[in-house]
C-alpha cells in the first residue's frame, strides 16, 4: 500500500519542481488566479502523504490481511492517493495545453474549453485535504497505532512460524523429486571438512526448501554424525536475542534457561554463552527462512569456528542471502518436472484409491490442475489434499479448475498458498512492489521482455532517479535483477552477452499478484480468467480478448491501456481513447488499424506509444504536442517517413521504426529505412534510434546524440563515412550498431576509421573495399554478436575473426566469395549460434576437433556448391538445432546416406526450401519476432511485406 503513496509523492515532487505555472503565460493565470495557491496546497498534501507513507510502512506488514478495519482504512488511503495523482496529472495536462502556442485561435479555444477544469482544481484539492484529515481521525478512533504493533507481534510471528512448522512436520515418505539435491546436501553434511561450513538452499516460496532441510535434519545417520544440533525459523520479523535463546535451549537438551538467567541476558552475553557451549562441539544448526544477510551477520559470531567440522544450513528465497554460503555450497531448487508433479498430486488427491491412480473420468481436469501448479510442491500438495475429499465427478473438478482464481482469493483452505507466496510480495520495498504488480498485467505464461517492461515502468513513473551517471533504464534493470534474486521472476532467456532478455512469473505467483493488484485497483487484465468486467477505479488495464463485450471502460483514471485483442473496429478504439485524458502508456501492438486515431495527439501525458506491427502508414504532424513522449515504437509498420515535427519531441528516449520487405534476407533491401527530415540535434535524450535513412546532414547531426546506445542506419554512401564515424566516436555509450550501404554496388572503405572498442553488437551490410575486413575488426574485443552481409570478401574471413573470444553469435550472409572455410582448434570458444548463408562458391567447410565447443545452433542457408556434410560436425557434441534451407540435393543425400553418423548426435534437424515460406518463417523468422515483439507476432508473420 505504501508503494501507491511512494509513486504519488514522486509525481508531486516532479510537478512542483517543473515550475509549470511560470510557463503557462499570463492569460491562463489571469483567468484562474486561484492557481497561484496550487503549489502551496500540494506541498501541504505532500507532507501529509509522507507521514501516512511512513506510518503504513511500519504497520501494514503486521496488520494488513488479518484486520478488516485496517484494510478498509487502507482502501480509503489508496483512494485519496489516487485522487492526488489525478489532480497532478490533470494539472500537467492543462498546463501542457496552455503552453501550446502553435496557433492563436487554438490557444484561445483551449483557454475557454479548459477554464472549467482549472476552476475545479481548488475544490478538488480542498476535498483531498479534508479527506486526509478524516483519515487521521479514523486512525486514532480505531486505534491503528505503531505502539499496538508490539502487542500483536508475538501472534503474527506465531502464525508465520506455523507455515514453516507444517513443512517441518511433513511425512517424508511422500517427498517426490529433488533426489539429486537431497543426495548432494547429505554428502556436504557428512563430508570430512574441518572448518565450519555454511550451506544454503535457495528458491521461491513453496518449493519445499524447509521440507528438504527437515528431511536431512531428521535423518538418523546425520543426527548421530554431529554432537549437537538445533533448528530455528528466522522469518522476516526475527529478534536476535530470541533466536539465540531458542538455539541455546535446544543445544542444552533441557529447560534450564530460566534458572540460568538466559531470558534476561543481553545479546552480547547470549553470544558468549553460545560460544562457550559450542567451543569443542561438532554442531549442526539450521536457520530456516532467512530473509536478509543481516540475520547471518549477527549470528555468525555466535557460531564459533572451532575446526570440528560443524555445519550451518540456511534456507532462503533470496539469492543474495544464499551467496553467503561457503565455496558455492548452494542448492537452487527448481519446480518439479511434470511426471513428478503428477506423482505427488496423485499421492495426495487419490490417497484413498488403490495405488493412488487417477480415475479416467476426471483425468482431463486433473491434468489441467496439475499443469496450473507448474511444479510448485506447495500448491500441488494443498490443492491435491482439498480435492481428495471431493466427489470424483467431471463436472465438480471442472468447476474447481475454472474457479481456481476465486478459490485462491477466498477459500480458507487455500490460504496457505497465498500466505506463503504473499510473504515475498510483502517483503518488497515500495519502489519495487509497484513494478512487480505491473508485471501481472500480462497473460499467464507470458515472457516479459527486459527492454519492454523497463520502458513501461519508466513511462508510468515507477522508476526512481539514482544520479546523473545512471540511466532510468539501468535502474529498471536493477529492479528486474532484484526481483529475480528474490525468486519472484525467473530468467527464461539471455542475450548474446549474458544479460537477461526475458523473464517469466510463475503462474500461481501471477494469480496471487493479480488478486492483490485488482484489489488495490492497480491493474486489471480483462479477458483473463476470473475477470468479467473492468472496475471504474482501475488505474491500468490490459484487454486480452473480448474487448467489444466490455460494458464500460470509463475512465479518465486509466494510466496504461494495453490492447492484445486484435479483432476490434477502429471506431471502438477511437471511442475508448477519447476518454483516456490522462493515459501515459498506450499499446496497440498488432491491432488492425491503418491510421493513427486523431485523438491521440490530444493525450498530452503520453509517455509511451506502441503501434508496432500495425498497418499504420503515416504519423501526423500533430504528434509535436506530445512533449512528454519517451517511446515511439513503429517497428514492422508501413511508416517510411516521419514528420518534421518529430524532432521537437525532446524527451524522446527510444525511436523504433522500419518496414520489412523480404524475410529471407537475400539483399540489402529486406528492410526499409525511415526518413527523418529536419534537424535531429534537439533529440538529446535519445538512447535508441532504429532504422533511419542516411543523408549528409543527418550523419553529422548524430554526433549531438551523446546518450545514444543503439543505432541502426541504412542507405549509407561512402561519401558519408568520415562524417558518420566522427559522430559515432562522440557516443561514449554506443554498444549496438547496424550500418547498411545504399545498394549492392556501393563500396564502403573503412580502412581509416577509428575503432569502436565498446561495441557489443555489430551488423555491417554492403561491399567492403578491396574485399578484405578493415582493421577495426581487430579492435572488437567486447563484441558478442556479429553479422556481416554481402561484403564480397576475397580473403578467408574466419581467421580474421577468430581473435574475438567473447563472440556468441556469428552470422555470415553473402560474406565470402571463396571456396573454402576453416575453423581451427581453439577458435570461438563461446560461440553458440553460427549462420553461413548465400555464399555461392563455398564447396568445403573444414572443422577441426576442439573448435566451436559451445555451438548450440547451426544454420546453413543457400550454399549451392556445398555437396557434402562437413565431417568436423561430429566433434561438436553441443549442437541442438540444425537448420538447412535451400541446400543442394547432393548435400541432403549425403546427410541421409553414408554421412548420417556425422550428425546422429543432433536431435533437431530442420530442412526447408525457401519457396516454402510458411515453414521457413515458422522456424526461422517467427522466433525472432516473438523475441523482439512478443508472442502475438507469431500470428502475424507475413510471407512478404511490401511498402
Salient structural properties:
947 residues; alpha/beta; Rossmann fold; 18-stranded mixed β-sheet; 30 strands
Task: Describe the protein.
This protein is α/β, with parallel strands linked by helices and 947 residues long. Among the domains are: 2-144; 153-332, P-loop containing nucleotide triphosphate hydrolases (Rossmann fold, 3-Layer(aba) Sandwich), CATH 3.40.50.300; 352-418, no CATH class; 431-520, Orthogonal Bundle (Arc Repressor Mutant, subunit A). The chain has 31 helices and 30 strands. Helix 22 crosses helix 25 (507-519). The longest helix has 38 residues, at 104-141. The chain starts with a helix and ends in a 14-residue tail after the last helix. The model is unreliable at 19-32, 148-169, 925-930 and 937-947 (pLDDT under 50).
User: What class would the helix/strand composition place it in?
Assistant: alpha/beta
- What is the count of helical runs? 31
Terminal CA distance = 49 Å
Q: What share of residues is helical?
A: 25-40%
Name the beta content range: 5-15%
Enumerate the spans where pLDDT stays under 50 for 5 or more consecutive residues: 19-32, 148-169, 925-930, 937-947
Quick one: how many beta strands?
A: 30
Classify the fold: give the CATH topology of the domain at 153-332: Rossmann fold
> What is the 3D shape?
globular
Mean pLDDT: 83
CATH homologous superfamily classification of the domain at 153-332? P-loop containing nucleotide triphosphate hydrolases
Amino acid at each position: 500500500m505504501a508503494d501507491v503513496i511512494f509513486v504519488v509523492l514522486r509525481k508531486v515532487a516532479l510537478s512542483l519542481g517543473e515550475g509549470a505555472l511560470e510557463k503557462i503565460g499570463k492569460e491562463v493565470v489571469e483567468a484562474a488566479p486561484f492557481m497561484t495557491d496550487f503549489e502551496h496546497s500540494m506541498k501541504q498534501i505532500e507532507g501529509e502523504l509522507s507521514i501516512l507513507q511512513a506510518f503504513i510502512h511500519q504497520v501494514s506488514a503486521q496488520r494488513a490481511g488479518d484486520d478488516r478495519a485496517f484494510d478498509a482504512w487502507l482502501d480509503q488511503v489508496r483512494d485519496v492517493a489516487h485522487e492526488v495523482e489525478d489532480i497532478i496529472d490533470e494539472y500537467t495536462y492543462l498546463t501542457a495545453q496552455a503552453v501550446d502556442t502553435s496557433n492563436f485561435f487554438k490557444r484561445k479555444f483551449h483557454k475557454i474549453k479548459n477554464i472549467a477544469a482549472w476552476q475545479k482544481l481548488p475544490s478538488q484539492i480542498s476535498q483531498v485535504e479534508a479527506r486526509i484529515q478524516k483519515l487521521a481521525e479514523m486512525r486514532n478512533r480505531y486505534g491503528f497505532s505503531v505502539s499496538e504493533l508490539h502487542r500483536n507481534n508475538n501472534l503474527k510471528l506465531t502464525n508465520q512460524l506455523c507455515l514453516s512448522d507444517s513443512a517441518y512436520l511433513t511425512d517424508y515418505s511422500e517427498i517426490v523429486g529433488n533426489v539429486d539435491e537431497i543426495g548432494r546436501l547429505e554428502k556436504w553434511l557428512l563430508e570430512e571438512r574441518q572448518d565450519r561450513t555454511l550451506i544454503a538452499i535457495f528458491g521461491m516460496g513453496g518449493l519445499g526448501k524447509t521440507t528438504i532441510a527437515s528431511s536431512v535434519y531428521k535423518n538418523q545417520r546425520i543426527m548421530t554424525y554431529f554432537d549437537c544440533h538445533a533448528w530455528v525459523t528466522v522469518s522476516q520479523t526475527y529478534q536476535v536475542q530470541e533466536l539465540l535463546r531458542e538455539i541455546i535451549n535446544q543445544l542444552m537438551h533441557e529447560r534450564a534457561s530460566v534458572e540460568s538467567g538466559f531470558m534476561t541476558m543481553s545479546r552480547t552475553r547470549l553470544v558468549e554463552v553460545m560460544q562457550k557451549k559450542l567451543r569443542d562441539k561438532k554442531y549442526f544448526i539450521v536457520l530456516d527462512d532467512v530473509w536478509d544477510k543481516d540475520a547471518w551477520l549477527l549470528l555468525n559470531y555466535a557460531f564459533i569456528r572451532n575446526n570440528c567440522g560443524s555445519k550451518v544450513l540456511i534456507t532462503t528465497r533470496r539469492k543474495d542471502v544464499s551467496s553467503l554460503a561457503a565455496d558455492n555450497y548452494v542448492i537452487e531448487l527448481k519446480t518439479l518436472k511434470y511426471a513428478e508433479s503428477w506423482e505427488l498430486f496423485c499421492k495426495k488427491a487419490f490417497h484413498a484409491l488403490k495405488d493412488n491412480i487417477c480415475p479416467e473420468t476426471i483425468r482431463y481436469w486433473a491434468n489441467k490442475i496439475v499443469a496450473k501448479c507448474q511444479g510448485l510442491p506447495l500448491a500441488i500438495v494443498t490443492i491435491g489434499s482439498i480435492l481428495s475429499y471431493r466427489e470424483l465427478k467431471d463436472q465438480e473438478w471442472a468447476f474447481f479448475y475454472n474457479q481456481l482464481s476465486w478459490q485462491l482469493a477466498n477459500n480458507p483452505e487455500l490460504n496457505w498458498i497465498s500466505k506463503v507466496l504473499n510473504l515475498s510480495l510483502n517483503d518488497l520495498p515500495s519502489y519495487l512492489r509497484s513494478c512487480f504488480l505491473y508485471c501481472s498485467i500480462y497473460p499467464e505464461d507470458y515472457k516479459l521482455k527486459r527492454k519492454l517492461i523497463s520502458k513501461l515502468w519508466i513511462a508510468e513513473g515507477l522508476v526512481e532517479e539514482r544520479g546523473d551517471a545512471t540511466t532510468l533504464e539501468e535502474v529498471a534493470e536493477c529492479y528486474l535483477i532484484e526481483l529475480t534474486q528474490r525468486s519472484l521472476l525467473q530468467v527464461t532467456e539471455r542475450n548474446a552477452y549474458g544479460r537477461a532478455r526475458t523473464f517469466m512469473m510463475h503462474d500461481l505467483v501471477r494469480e496471487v499478484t493479480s488478486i492483490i493488484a485488482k484489489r488495490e485497483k492497480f491493474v486489471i487484465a480483462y479477458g483473463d480468467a476470473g475477470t468479467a468486467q473492468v472496475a471504474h477505479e482501475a488505474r491500468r488495464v490490459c484487454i486480452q480478448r473480448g474487448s467489444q463485450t466490455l460494458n464500460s471502460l470509463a475512465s479518465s483514471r486509466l494510466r496504461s491501456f494495453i490492447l492484445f485483442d486484435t479483432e476490434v473496429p477502429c471506431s471502438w478504439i477511437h471511442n475508448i481513447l477519447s476518454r483516456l485524458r490522462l493515459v501515459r502508456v498506450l499499446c496497440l501492438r498488432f491491432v488492425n488499424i491503418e491510421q493513427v486515431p486523431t485523438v491521440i495527439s490530444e493525450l498530452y501525458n503520453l509517455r509511451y506509444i506502441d503501434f508496432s506491427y500495425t498497418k499504420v502508414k503515416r504519423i501526423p504532424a500533430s504528434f509535436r504536442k506530445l512533449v512528454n513522449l519517451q517511446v515511439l515504437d513503429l517497428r514492422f509498420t508501413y511508416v517510411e517517413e516521419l514528420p518534421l515535427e518529430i524532432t521537437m519531441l525532446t524527451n524522446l528516449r527510444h525511436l523504433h521504426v522500419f518496414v520489412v520487405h523480404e524475410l529471407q534476407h537475400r539483399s540489402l533491401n529486406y528492410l526499409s529505412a525511415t526518413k527523418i527530415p529536419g534537424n535531429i540535434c534537439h533529440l538529446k535524450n535519445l538512447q535508441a534510434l532504429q532504422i533511419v535513412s542516411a543523408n549528409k546532414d543527418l550523419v553529422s547531426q548524430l554526433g549531438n546524440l551523446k546518450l545514444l546506445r543503439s543505432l541502426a542506419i541504412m542507405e549509407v554512401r561512402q561519401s558519408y563515412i568520415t562524417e558518420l564515424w566522427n559522430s559515432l566516436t562522440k557516443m561514449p555509450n554506443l554498444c549496438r550498431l547496424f550500418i547498411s550501404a545504399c545498394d549492392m554496388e556501393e563500396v564502403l572503405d573503412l580502412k581509416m576509421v577509428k575503432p569502436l572498442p565498446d561495441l557489443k553488437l555489430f551488423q555491417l551490410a554492403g561491399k567492403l573495399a578491396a574485399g578484405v575486413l578493415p582493421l577495426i575488426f581487430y579492435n572488437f574485443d567486447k563484441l558478442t554478436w556479429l553479422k556481416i552481409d554481402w561484403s564480397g570478401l576475397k580473403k578467408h574471413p574466419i581467421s580474421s575473426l577468430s581473435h574475438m573470444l567473447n563472440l556468441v553469435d556469428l552470422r555470415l550472409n553473402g560474406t565470402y566469395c571463396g571456396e573454402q572455410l576453416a575453423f581451427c582448434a581453439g577458435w570461438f570458444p563461446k560461440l553458440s549460434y553460427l549462420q553461413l548463408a548465400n555464399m555461392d562458391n563455398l564447396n568445403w567447410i573444414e572443422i577441426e576437433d576442439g573448435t566451436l565447443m559451445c555451438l548450440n545452433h547451426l544454420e546453413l542457408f543457400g550454399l549451392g556448391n556445398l555437396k557434402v556434410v562437413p565431417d568436423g560436425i561430429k566433434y561438436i557434441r553441443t549442437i541442438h538445432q540444425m537448420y538447412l534451407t535451400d541446400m543442394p540435393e547432393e548435400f541432403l543425400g549425403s546427410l541421409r546416406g553414408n554421412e548420417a553418423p556425422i550428425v546422429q548426435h543432433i536431435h533437431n534437424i530442420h530442412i526447408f526450401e525457401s519457396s516454402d515460406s510458411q515453414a521457413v518463417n515458422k522456424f526461422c523468422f517467427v522466433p525472432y519476432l516473438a523475441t523482439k515483439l512478443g508472442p502475438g507476432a507469431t500470428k502475424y508473420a507475413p510471407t512478404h511485406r511490401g511498402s
